[in-house]
Amino acid sequence: MLLFLLLKQVRSGNLVSNIGFKIKVILDDVLEILKVWRRSKTPFKASISQMSKLYTFIWNEMATSKQKIKEELHSGPFIFVPYTSGSSLEEMLPGIFLSPEEVCWHDSTGSLDQMKEIPHCSLTEVTHHPLNKTLSSTYPGLRDFFIDGCGVHETPPLCSYIQILMHLSAISLPSLSANAVFQVFLKWSDGLQTGILTPEDVIYLKECLLKLELTVLPTEQDKWVSLHPSFGLVCWCDDSKLWEQFKNVDNIDFLYFGKLNEVEKQILQTKVSVLMQALGIPALSEVVSREAIYYGLADSSFKASLVGWALPYAQRYICSVHPDKYIQLKQSGFNFLNHLQVVVVEKLYYRNAIKSGFGTSKKRIECGCLLQDNILYATRDSDSHAIFTELSCLLFNGTPDLHLANFLHMITTMAESGSTEEQTEFFILNSQKVPKLPDEESLWCLSSVPSLTKNDDSLQTSFDSEKMEEQSYQRSKRKAENNPNWPPVDWKTAPGFSYARANGFRTQATSAQHGCGPQKKDEDDSEGRVMRTDNVVPISIDDDWIIEDDSATASTALVLSDNNLEDQSDQAYNQTDSGMEVEFDPTDFDITADDPELDSSNFHKRDQLRTGTPNAMQAARTGRLGELVAFKYIIGKAGNTVVKWVNEDSETGLPYDIVVGEENCREYIEVKATKSRKKDWFNISTREWQFAVDKGESFSIAHVLLSNNAARVSVYKNPVKLCQSGKLQLVVMMPRQQKDFSIVS
To answer: What's the CA gap between 301 and 449, in Å, rounded?
Structure first.
């Protein structure tokens, strides 16, 4: 280049020509220079100004030799991309030559630009990844040359974003890249809506996301996951109330798209949700079902006859308004009718549960009616509109159809008000525009099943003893004798009524499942007790408790009566207001800094955990008994009205066992129990520890040491802080067999 400049100063053109030097650069010279540069073994440096002039020269020459130039350029990489940005266009920068397939003009999602902003991420680290650089900021005036002349993509192809996200997840934390992922999902959503993203593309993306190694989905736990089953359930949150119930459940990961504004939240719910459904990423509400919980069985004949009477009208409505749905049901042989059952109970609740056994909510909500699978649960006081709303869920794959429910409710109201069948038929035909069924269609009806004549234990899901259940059944049986059957007298000619009357207006009883219905929060159980007792170990203790303080160890001994704690009944303990002598000492709830038992110097005196022979049943009984002892102890300190034992009726799986206080000021207590005085350690799950970290001063561990006639309770407030200060210590237990582990000496 210097020689060329010197020759320009020579005035004699003949002299330059005679020497053999060129005085004009032609296209072939530039293409040859490019070949030399990209074959060079040494690092290449150039300025953006210099390369822009070179590409401008080539672009001008393309007007006459476009095909030849494109062939020459595509014989190897020719687009210079600097590793870093310079302070000026004239600055010499190191860089690399890339092919058109490895760059694009710009990326509206910001994913590629974010790679440049990540510390310690240079282009040398990403050269083996496609589409890792944009050109719009480097060569802003050469858009036409690169896109029209060289075939560079204006934006990355939609499917290539999966590789871009893969690399982004390898060099960035999910919390830092969450919004970039959202923008990619939005890009895919637009493509799906316009048809640019084809069904084949959707299948490809779905297959990629199912791969174990392709972890490109950011979660609220700040980790990258894929849809591979090993990561558990991956879903996105469309219901904040449900999220509150399940945010601490193991094996459930919620997608995190960063802090979205109100417009972006609306886009997520409408546009992006369609894409995620196509990719197999469910919404939280889609994986949550409702599990029926109830007390006492009642006679079902009245409600069953109402449903049986309404079914032909529902059939008529579906056949007229939703003919495609009717054909679908008909092709299945109206199979749902063979299993539809109506069960009336004294008290009805539900709790939310994740399908496939991933977890259940601790809250229970009272309701008057709900459908679970093919069982329609109702209370005595449930109204017809609620029943018909739940019935519509059976016909529309779990989604209520209010139009059908309103239609059936209006007909029912007319019957109750004394309208004749002719008047109602006129209303259906002229006002509702619902014609009669074709003559060849058989009317829908409930299956013929004997009436409930005894207490069915398979339907009972409650805490009541057998005696209480029997009393409840006898009460309901007496009440049922006065129940009139549906419909009113003037309606004995209504379609389907003759069948119901012939079969006693009765339906089959079956096992309790889960469903949905009108919601009413159970005020008596704000913590939402789980109404299952299958895996509860029955325990009880004597009521005569005396609490003595032990100030030396900042723990408390619960001295029981002479009855041995091993003496356990077959019935779960339910009473908490027993007679107790209580001496309240507020210091018992906190561990003081100068506690001699918590001196960190004690830890070095032993090098192994003291363990005993494990016994699963005994461990379960010890755990239950320890929780009960801690529960009684804390009641003595805080009072019965503000203390809840969340596992009193069933093991909930929550990261705590006892809750103290009202909703705005709660203390969470995890109980650890043992019968061995030598055992100075206990297991704590990662979920419990994470909960302890989150709650801080609001979380305590109650360690219960049980013996034949006494129990000592030690309460450790904020165990995370105690571990940080050295007063408690964490231990990682290694397996005895280490064949699968690499050991470095």
So the answer is: 11
